[in-house]
């Protein structure tokens, strides 16, 4: 067990599975059956998925659900969501319908700038470095022409390169800090390729720069990589209505609800323990759409949470106010997304999801995703400040518990009916199943 295996990546898929089953499952064929059960019978499709990553042994399914009735800037959308958590799609749909009847969501992209950096060490005269940088900057741009040509034709490319002195933080540490416009591409490959080209040219040119002494000539490149912190790739989405319209069939007192809602948001603005859970709810909506549309949810997560901490304390991503009887709830969030490149033309379900969204541009997708986050947060806060989260949550969770106990269709029907008038708890469901079965 504690021995390493060499050459694992060169084993065939079957050999890899055999090794796993023999090493970790005591040769148990059942483990092999579970793995194989998720293989797709369409060999071409399976091969496509096998080749997305390395050492693939099977597929890991996530449900793809849809939330209809999202009215965004006057256009109706049905939003695809890939997520394993029950209640999320239901909550999004409910919030979408609620705001559909109140003018819908307004969304706007504030900026679309992305960032990449070449991190390097230089020990020498700082003014000489600045002079060298100004001299070499056109050459850095020239050296990337073959990469930027097409992007430039479409109106994107490298926006600027700055030399940044970071020696106050680490002795000898400088950066080439570059900004990019990558249009409908998320742009990770584009940015990283440009950065590596900058690094190469910068290092090479330094070696022959006449102003540099021998030590200065040897610039040490540490690394070249895009940043997933994208505070200037920002989108805003909002909903607003007169307070009295916040009630549905007189189910709540609208004034009381509006005040409690704003207070709930304010709490997440000042209390990090609450802010993290509050934002987790936002990300339920964001990640599900990001995943369904083939975007990198880890990049989005990292960037969003860094943004939530931009003022030195982790805070709410959403904001709410009441002004002259008008309730307004909004989100401002950095989202670096793509609708071309990457998985977007490879994964059939990603393609389908983008088609469902009327083949959006990256800017349109930023708006849709921000709206999904705002809607999710609205639904969560509405439940939390009125009935409490567990009522709706446990109803949805009921199905998970029933599946866990392999309830038959007939048992499910009886128990769903039973729990329409009874509180769902794990033990109450178990008890009810046992009662039916005994
Ligand atoms: C659960 O996935 C998300 C919530 O906890 C979010 C929140 O508390 O705002 C309901």
TrEMBL record:
It is an enzyme of class 1 (oxidoreductase). Its EC number is 1.1.1.88. It comes from the Bacteria. One of its GO terms (molecular function) is hydroxymethylglutaryl-CoA reductase (NADH) activity. Keywords: NAD, Oxidoreductase. It catalyses: (R)-mevalonate + 2 NAD(+) + CoA = (3S)-3-hydroxy-3-methylglutaryl-CoA + 2 NADH + 2 H(+). Belongs to the HMG-CoA reductase family. This is 3-hydroxy-3-methylglutaryl coenzyme A reductase.
